[in-house]
Amino acid sequence: MKEVLTGNEAAALGAKLARVQVISAYPITPQTVVVEKLSEYVANGELQAEFMKVESEHSAMSACIGAAAAGARTFTATSSQGLMLMSEMLFVASGLRLPIVMANANRSLSAPLSIWCDWQDTMAVRDSGWIQLYCENNQEILDSVIQAFKIAEQTLLPVMVCYDGYILSHTVEPVDIPEQKEVDDFLPPYSYPFMLDPGKPVTLGAVGTPPYYMEFRYMLDQALLGSKKVITDVGEDFGRRFGRRYGLLEAYRCDDADFVIVTMGSLAGAVKDVVDDLRKKGKKVGVLKLRSFRPFPSDELAEALSNVKAIGVMEKDISLGSFGALFLDVLASLSLNEVRLPAVNVICGLANRDVTSEDIVKVFDMIEDVASKRKSVKETVWLGLRKELLEGEEI
Amino acid sequence: MKLEPGAVITEPGNSEKNETGGWRSFRPVIKDEKCKRCGICWMFCPDMAISPKEPYQIDYRYCKGCGICANECPFKAIEMVEEEK
Question: pTM to 2 decimals?
Fold first, then answer.
């Protein structure tokens, strides 16, 4: 059955279909509707779950940690400053290997204060040990929330489902909604192996002294790397059951492409449209969409780009003082796989600065240029930067 | 010993596997001739590292060298000696 849903509604509905047992969340723009919808489901009896109201995101994640340790299927949602306030507990959730699922409507960080979309919030916690999946559209949000529980429960890792604030969170799209029975078959009830149980006592959150700590971090890193296979298998299983296949990344018209844009989220959808237009004009262009940013599919990415002439990495974040966070991982992956490609790093769409089709065509022109010069652009390109504001001209 | 994911400890009472003697920078040494067997050091030791049997002995596998025993001994029968490599 198809319904017209916003991204936030799709996230809430995904959690409901996954039969979450505990929700603890705090409303924040642009995620608020997720919390509203879920509390509505619980209040009207559509969802049998405990909705824990808290005074902050730090408490929301703390409550989720407790609930997950008690064995409940646990969900939360946040954005931006909320994710920052939660960040201390994010590392606890992954360190304790608790399979919590979170929806994050991507929003930029203060200062200056901004409620608009970019990926700086989730990029700031990319090293928290959480799986990070980025969604292109509202269908992917619903499907990924359902899959996220299966991935989390199989790997004992928390999963963040990231989607662009406003662009997806507040935009309606037709979304195919799976039957509850089908979701139940796909996602059976699970049992956390170290559940808090007075009959079988365990210690959770012990100190990791120098002789032990490194091994736990190694185990966490191995779990994330190992989750690549789980994300792939779960995405394929989902595809067999529901007709929509998912993986770590999607190479769109990349097979014979010379020039490829690497990107994530809703931006990938916009680039796909431009690729289709340029293909009609005979340009051999493609887009590589990363769905999983953590774990980073290094080998798969290098394989997909092995016959390309040049790439551009378009991202809505910046690792200040370095390069775009996505660019760093892409370049490291290519280098370790001996794939030598000229590349250009394009920072765009911060705080939802418009990225138009014309802008994307410009990026393809830049990629063609670096290909002909066979030389990467060393300086990061800030797309659509308003020089008149920087140089003090009359506006 | 094999570590569980998430640093979960599933076996109660296994902290005795964690020998904390390596933390010590000063070692308590009992001077047996001054010791009156009063048991105050044994009562105060936070790590239960002192055996009150004849003669009193310190279990250096667990003694962290906190010095509480030496501080509490009314007869100055315990001396803290710097550990050397």
Answer: 0.93
